[in-house]
């Protein structure tokens, strides 16, 4: 079973060191490094890429949003998990960073089991879909429909494509979707590519966001 390297950036020393110890206790985390701000994290990544970077949203010197933009541009293979204090304070930033391509969002009071699950999900499934993300996306859809935001793009998907997209949003793998729908993995993979082309996105995060906006997931 594959094991992963995880880096964490957070300016609160006690919290960061406690997180390092927690991460090292996970069965499939083989290496952990920590940084006290985004600039230090980028330096670590420059010398050796992790599988996952856990980034605090609010940090001095270089905050979480700017740090994520830099990682996505320079190291697109690194999966990013954002840590935030509250959904209410961070909703607009979460939406913006979803559009950038951040892979998961967790509250700082998240249970250890969920953190571990999120780490594995972002590497193996490209996205972690939890209640925090769902709340932000539902709020986004409500604002679009009330005219507070521009309406979402339209895309004509077949019933099969909608079915596959809904299962992607439930974090099923290509293999699991194929087994569920009695399709080959190649067929599911081709459907996924076609959906992304129709919707105009290039990652799973974009697919999930579209699914909410189009009413495929609610």
UniProtKB/TrEMBL annotation:
SUPFAM superfamilies: C-terminal effector domain of the bipartite response regulators, CheY-like. One of its GO terms (biological process) is regulation of DNA-templated transcription. GO terms for molecular function: DNA binding. It comes from the Bacteria. Residues 5-123 form the Response regulatory domain. InterPro entries: CheY-like_superfamily (IPR011006), NreC/VraR/RcsB-like_REC (IPR058245), Sig_transdc_resp-reg_C-effctor (IPR016032), Sig_transdc_resp-reg_receiver (IPR001789), Tscrpt_reg_LuxR_C (IPR000792), WalR-like (IPR039420), WH-like_DNA-bd_sf (IPR036388). The keyword DNA-binding applies. It holds the Pfam family Response_reg. The modification 4-aspartylphosphate is found at residue 56. Keywords: DNA-binding, Phosphoprotein. Residues 150-215 form the HTH luxR-type domain. This is DNA-binding response regulator. It comes from Pseudochryseolinea flava. The lineage of its organism: Bacteria, Pseudomonadati, Bacteroidota, Cytophagia, Cytophagales.
